[in-house]
Amino acid sequence: MTLEETYAALEGSYADAISRLRSEKLVRKFALKFLNDDSYQLLQDSLAKQDYAEAFRAAHTIKGVCQNLAFDKLGNSSEKLTESLRGGWSEAAAPLVSQVTADYQQTIAALQKLDAE
């Protein structure tokens, strides 16, 4: 799987990532580093502990990383979750958590395929 195909699979913008980082080598390097980022696990752990301030920070971190790497789908859903958690927990956050989880899994699956090659 090429890097461009990976971006298509995770519903990101390959062109935006290249324009930011200026080389495919750097985009690939930083995209694969996302596999070791612990922000999603922190989000899950914080939600389980009902620590919504920490969950907000984790969602905000995911959003920022995704915006920098042009992981558009996960970036958009994590941005919505970030805004929902800004004032603490609300019932509106529950479906957003599910969407972030689905988008995160899609992103990780695409990156793992890239890493395997």
Which of globular, elongated, flat, extended, rod-shaped describes the shape? elongated
The percent range for helix content is over 70%
Category from helices, strands and their pairing: mainly alpha
Distance between the termini: 7 Å
Total count of strands:
0
N-to-C SSE string, H for helix and E for strand: HHHHHHH
Radius of gyration: 14 Å
Largest sheet: none
Strand portion, in percent?
under 5%
Count of alpha and pi helical runs: 7
Assembly annotation = single chain
Low-confidence stretches: none
pLDDT averaged residue by residue: 97
Write up this protein:
Helices cover 78% and strands 0% of the residues. It has 117 residues and is mainly α. The longest helix is centred in the C-terminal third of the chain and has 24 residues, at 93-116. It is elongated and about 40 Å long. The N and C termini lie close together (7 Å).
